[in-house]
Amino acid sequence: MVEYGDHEMLTPDQIIDLSQPLYHNCPSITFHSPPEIRLLQNAAENGWTLEEIKMTTHQGTHMDAPYHLDGYTQTIDQIPIDQMIGRGVFVDLRDHPAGSPIKIRDLESYSSQIIPGSIVLLVTGWGRKRFWTSEWLFNSVWLASDASEWLAQRQVRGVGIDHVSIGGMGTENEETHRKLLKSGIWIIEDMYYPDSVFEHKEWFIFAFPLPLQGTSGSPCRVIAISNFVN
Amino acid sequence: MVEYGDHEMLTPDQIIDLSQPLYHNCPSITFHSPPEIRLLQNAAENGWTLEEIKMTTHQGTHMDAPYHLDGYTQTIDQIPIDQMIGRGVFVDLRDHPAGSPIKIRDLESYSSQIIPGSIVLLVTGWGRKRFWTSEWLFNSVWLASDASEWLAQRQVRGVGIDHVSIGGMGTENEETHRKLLKSGIWIIEDMYYPDSVFEHKEWFIFAFPLPLQGTSGSPCRVIAISNFVN
Lengths: 230, 230
Prior knowledge:
Two copies of one chain form a homodimer. Chain A is α/β, with parallel strands linked by helices. Chain A contains five helices and twelve strands. In chain A, α4 (145-153) packs parallel to α5. β3 (50-56) of chain A pairs antiparallel with β3 of chain B.
């Protein structure tokens, strides 16, 4: 096990970024304008370069708080920071058929790792298809609501997926969200998983939203650090 | 030493937030409009609550990349993620007189800890004065450019301060930034330090900006985790 004190020794294969790049007009759900990044001033003319960001709280790699859905009031700043760190369980769903739901049977072989306090990361491979296409928007792999309830019962800390909507674009989406959010389990959507997540046995996940006050979610940076138990 | 595997055991006194709350009209430098948070839709009427964020890349607790200044091209997404983690050195400057610069002599007693790879956190106490006041904006404690150069020579990984401008509001500000940024050392401004940062001997800092592409900075969440070496 690597101790915190050995952080100076972290090599690129011990720390990986699980976040999608955030840029002007990057793909996102069509209901709202995509993120806008505007150059406000440049250093050549003004001494300092500075940009403006305009986006929603649910674009790019982002965390949903329970307040995203009617009936729940916990906002993003009310999620305790110790809940943003946990042991990661990467579920390999890269061969899952397009457009089909992730069911309980797809998760069961990870039962020994999906335990209270763990962070479950659904690796569908759809993070590589992140373009303005009908395929990416409307035909992704998604999490069925009964599988969502199964995860909630196991008291996981959070659930992440490499697509912008964990419940897809159909009518079941709200229920898939509800099963997790009602239990105070955060959701991160629009993650990106390099194949290297499968190279080590143990990864710890650090998922930090912005310290936004009173909002239903936030763009989020997600990092995994391996402790080399292999 | 606590190992990564013991993360489930993190208690509130082992993990602390070093970020200022980010909210509509929160105090920031006057040159640009303050952050705006707008409710786009609410769950009661629309099923889902969702907000819009409009802010610059240098408001709230935020990280400066070298590209912030003329002459340097490293953008926020080009800072390697392993550079965002390091051993924290909290420099106690809470008794430093208002309006006066932090000089090399104020840092020298921390020489044994300010070493290559460390993250230096200047604790001025001005994070508690974060209001729209002329005191906060124009009369803060700030880092002199020769002290900035001293830190750069020691090859620290990054420097943070609990005020919105590390070099204050005078003419020396640019040079204070330049001494660090020219060496590829990031700066985090507008941090918040609870007094508990002084309760343990060793803290590790996790400073995660958003994965913005090509920008000069980013809002940033900064967390400290103690390994209880005490």
